[in-house]
Amino acid sequence: MKKWYFWVTTIAIAAAAGAITGIAIQAARDERADDLDEGARLRFQPEGLGLRF
Length: 53
Known about the structure:
Keywords: Membrane, Transmembrane, Transmembrane helix. By secondary structure, the protein is α+β, with helices and mostly antiparallel strands. It is 62% helix and 15% strand.
């Protein structure tokens, strides 16, 4: 653990994991529903459970 390349590798792995996590979170927030998502979704309506196609 006294070698410099151990710490460089450890920091690089941690930075890559953080970047991947950040990109995944950002992509999940930016995702917009399209017509296909809207059509197959179950909807709860006041009169009961309904399917909309």
